[in-house]
Amino acid sequence: MANGEPDVARPSWMPPDDVLAAIVPMGQFLIRAERMIVALSHLSVYPNGCMFDVQASARGSDAVPGVFDRIVFTTRFGAGIAAATDVREPLRRRPPGGDALTLMKYGQQEEGSHGVHGAEDNAVACTLRLWLYPLPPPEPGTLSIASPDHGPGQTSCPLDGRTIVTAGAEAQPYWR
Alpha carbon of 14 to those of 6, 21, 29, 106: distances in Å? Predict the structure, then answer.
């Protein structure tokens, strides 16, 4: 590099920074309760993987700082092809192992407000970004969430692996 620092190539498993992703609209709720929602908004699909844009919002007594930090997301495609987030792994670092798919929290932007009239006025909203690498097989799948803070069991929404793979082929490089 010109400033004397070593030139470090972007790892091939990360989202490319010179590609316009193809967008796959989703609009699926994973949690839809009186004071909390978690929903898959859309996928930004690249040739080497896809970014899940998850919207989360809480209000009232459920709106506490870090309310969405312990959610674990899992993707499943076909027979036994699965990947899950791991809250212990740092962002932007590929977890060890030879999994067929890797799913990691890639970023989180959180906004909150605390009401002047008590807990019922509180609100918190965030966008969670999850990176799935590589693209899944062209089979039906699911995105599931589980959290000890948000009730028992998992909830899920459908994913179409064929649509995701097709969108990956439609992503466009910035430069010709």
Answer: 19, 13, 27, 10
Backbone phi and psi for residue 106, each to the nearest 5 degrees, phi listed first: -105, -20
Domain that holds residue 71: 21-170
- Report in angstroms the alpha-carbon separations of 124 from 14, 30, 147, 167: 29, 17, 17, 32
Q: State pLDDT tens for residues 100-139.
A: 577 777 766 666 555 444 556 788 888 889 999 999 999 9
Establish if 117 belongs to a structural domain: yes
Residue 3 lies in a domain: no
148-158 pLDDT, tens per residue?
A: 666 666 789 99
Residue identified by tokens 């192992």 is 97
